[in-house]
Write a structure and sequence with these properties.
Layout (H helix, E strand, L loop, with lengths): L1 H23 L9 H20 L5 H16 L3 E8 L2 E11 L11 E3 L4 H9 L3 E3 L5 H9 L8 E8 L2 E9 L9 H149 L3 E5 L5 E4 L1 H7 L3 H4 L11 H11 L4 E7 L2 E9 L13 E7 L1 H36 L8 H29 L10 E3 L1 H11 L1 H6 L3 E6 L6 E3 L1 H18 L5 E9 L15 E7 L7 H5 L18 H13 L3 E7 L3 E9 L10
Parallel strand pairs: 13-15
Antiparallel strand pairs: 1-2, 1-6, 2-3, 4-5, 5-6, 7-8, 7-11, 9-10, 10-11, 12-14, 15-16, 16-18, 17-18
Length: 680
């Protein structure tokens, strides 16, 4: 260890003496080219980086010093070190990042190796790979993980020890876009060789510390075992004394048993006398049996009379049912009741008026055929699955609040067949009032844009440093102010969209899209939120997902809102998990019309405190206050819009939460048919 530290120090001292000599004889060496001076400067940076790398045995400090030193030696804009995950070599983790223009450390960000072909190629070939400026999606994602919204030349150098891969150095010039030279690639390789030694020394130090801790725990366990052994010996001694006492007690019981045997022999004689008495008792019981038979005949006659009474009560119940039917006909709310085949069996006058259809036209009509709106069809399917549904929609000239629910079934009828009831209430006046309120909210949101835009403009002016140089803390606060202003603008836009035309979200413009690409685009849009809260992002995206037929703008809004909710709900320093997969299990979409090709399922999990039962019931409530419940980040309007957009594609959205574990929002969408159209 002492040699590792001393060698760079001696080398630096020697080269500093050389530079001092060169400065004294500078007049004699005026013909030396600027390139030679730059090489000497690079060597000084190289040895300074070596000194910083070997100056500590803590792995995190070694890695932080290494990325700063490498970036300085290569004059690069960004530098990071990635290690493969333990037990999962196909997943890489950025353990150290140097990017002066980014906020937050972000070392815990992971990415699949199969999605970064440049890093995969360098590791497989065991040699450095230099990439010129490229505009592919993989490099965009990689530079985004490095904290840069732009791409540039890239240098990837594997970390090798005896041919085994320890990780990789990733260097980029996204800001200057300066390409890396062959000499810089060789210099990076030399730095990698020195870094491997420092990493192995740090890991050996960690293993030694772990062994010392293990030995301490083993000694503690040994001491504990010795104490337990002493306690067991003491316990055995006490049990031996107890056993001796029990032997004495058994001997006493044996003596008592002999006395009891003599008593039983005496009792046997008396039992014979009792047997004769029992025979006499049997004769008495036969007499009692005859009396009981007579009583049973009397009870039969009583049950016959009771049956007559129950028949009279049944007649009264039938009359009550007729009365209830009369009351149903007099209700102002429309009622439709189906048979087991889903056809309308009964309807009242209010339903005929609200639907503008006669009773004969409604009778025998399938409940799903009452309205051709896709949401009505979906509600009927969900109710058939045993779940009550409430929705508000226009039917004819009226706005109706519709409750579709299954009727309770008796044990004889079973659960295989289900009758449904639909209750229709005219809420046209309430809907008009809500529309007026939404328009007022939209106007208020539009007025809110002007002051927020002014805040953003002055923030950008200060960040440009035209009014003076900013400190690191000032720049961080200004970036947070700008992020908050942008969030307010987004919320104002959402309120405007909600207020202007809610019905427009039910008419998606479908086209064939790739879900994974939309997820990557949404991640890039929320990168600042991830950094501000120091969140770790984990991606598990299935690579061979089929395409779906959907509106890309709708799905971007869905993914952005759910990601923003996860960021806001997660604790600082927590994590956000995103998963995409294909599911053939139709139980995931019990209320979906399946096209036979399965579903695409997307899940986003936060690391917040979870939701209470009361909060779960209000997750998608547009009318709840803007202050989100504990464990939830977005407002009611934002999540209600997400639910509307998913259902507009024939999909399904649900939420699962465990207290103290976080919340998961999942949605499924049917995959596209061969003609490019999805189910629903």
């Amino acid at each position: 260890m002492a040699n590792l530290v001393a060698y760079p120090l001696v080398a630096i001292a020697v080269y500093r003496e050389i530079v001092a000599g060169l400065h004294v004889h500078s007049r004699e060496l005026q013909d030396i080219s600027q390139a030679s001076l730059d090489q000497i400067k690079s060597l000084l940076y190289l040895f300074e980086a070596s000194q910083q790398t070997a100056s500590s045995l803590e792995l995190s400090i070694v890695l932080d010093n290494a990325v700063r030193g490498i970036a300085r030696v290569l004059e690069a804009d960004q530098c990071a070190i990635a290690f493969p995950e333990e037990g999962n070599p196909g997943q890489m983790r950025l353990v150290a990042i140097h990017n002066p223009s980014r906020q937050g450390r972000g070392e815990a960000v992971t990415f699949p190796l199969e999605y970064q072909l440049t890093v995969q190629q360098a590791i497989r070939r065991k040699k450095g790979v230099v990439v010129e400026d490229s505009d592919n999606v993989q490099l965009k994602v990689l530079f985004a993980l490095l904290g840069s919204a732009e791409t540039g030349p890239l240098l990837v150098q594997p970390l090798l020890e005896n041919g085994a891969n320890l990780g990789a150095i990733i260097v980029g010039n996204a800001r200057s876009r300066r390409p890396f030279s062959a000499n810089e690639a060789k210099l990076c390789q030399s730095l990698a060789e020195q870094l491997v030694g420092a990493i192995q020394n740090a890991r050996r130090y960690q293993r030694a510390q772990q062994q010392i801790q293990d030995m301490g725990r083993a000694q503690a366990e040994e001491h504990k075992g010795l104490q337990q052994a002493r306690a067991q010996i003491q316990d055995l001694t006490e049990r031996l004394a107890q056993a001796r006492s029990e032997i004495d007690a058994i001997q006493q019981r044996e003596e008592s048993a002999r006395e009891a045997r003599n008593a039983l022999e005496i009792k046997l004689v008396s039992s014979r006398a009792e047997n004769e008495a029992l025979s006499q008792r049997l004769a008495v019981l036969e007499t009692d049996l005859a009396q009981t038979h007579a009583n049973a005949e009397a009870q039969i006659r009583w049950h016959e009379q009771e049956l007559i009474r129950q028949e009279a009560e049944w007649e009264e119940m039938v009359q009550a049912a007729e009365s209830i039917r009369s009351v149903m006909q007099g209700l102002t709310a429309g009622i439709l009741i189906t048979d087991f085949d889903g056809a309308v069996q009964e309807s009242n006058v209010a339903a005929e008026i609200l639907l503008d259809r006669g009773g004969e036209e409604l009778h025998g009509l399938a409940l799903a055929a009452v309205c051709d709106d896709e949401r009505w069809q979906q509600a009927v399917i969900t109710a058939c699955g045993g779940e009550a549904v409430r929705l508000t929609m226009r039917m004819g000239m009226n706005t109706l609040m519709c409750d579709v629910a299954p009727l309770p079934t008796s044990e004889e009828e079973g659960e295989a067949r289900q009758r449904l009831v639909a209750i229709l209430q005219d809420v046209s006046v309430e809907a008009e009032e809500q529309r007026v309120q939404l328009e007022a909210v939209s106007s208020l949101a539009e007025e809110l844009r002007t002051p927020v835009t002014t805040i953003s403009s002055y923030t950008d002016l200060l960040l440009s440093e035209t009014m003076g140089i900013l400190g690191e803390a000032q720049r961080k606060f200004l970036l947070q102010i700008r992020a908050g202003a942008e969030r307010i603008v987004q919320m104002a836009g959402l309120m405007t969209s909600e207020g202007l035309a809610e019905e427009k979200w039910t008419r998606p413009q479908r086209q064939v899209v790739d879900v994974n690409q939309l997820v990557e685009s949404a991640i890039a849009g929320t990168h600042s939120q991830l950094e501000d809260r120091d969140l770790r992002l984990t991606l598990e995206m299935q690579s061979d997902l089929p395409h779906i037929a959907a509106d890309p703008d709708y799905l971007r809004r869905v993914l952005s809102n759910l990601l923003s909710n996860a960021c806001l709900a997660s604790q600082v320093g927590g994590h956000v998990d995103i998963r995409t997969a294909r599911s053939e299990d139709s139980s995931l979409g019990q209320s979906l019309e399946v096209n036979g090709d399965g579903f695409i399922i997307v899940s986003i999990t936060d690391s917040g405190g979870g939701l209470s039962e009361d909060a779960l019931d209000r997750v998608f409530d547009r009318a709840r206050p803007s202050g989100a419940p504990a464990g939830l980040g977005e407002s009611g309007a934002g999540l209600a819009l997400v639910k509307t957009l998913v259902e507009a594609h024939g999909g399904r959205l649900w939420v699962e939460s465990r207290r103290g574990r976080g919340t998961t929002f999942s949605f499924v969408l049917p995959v596209a048919n061969s003609d490019g159209a999805g189910a629903g």
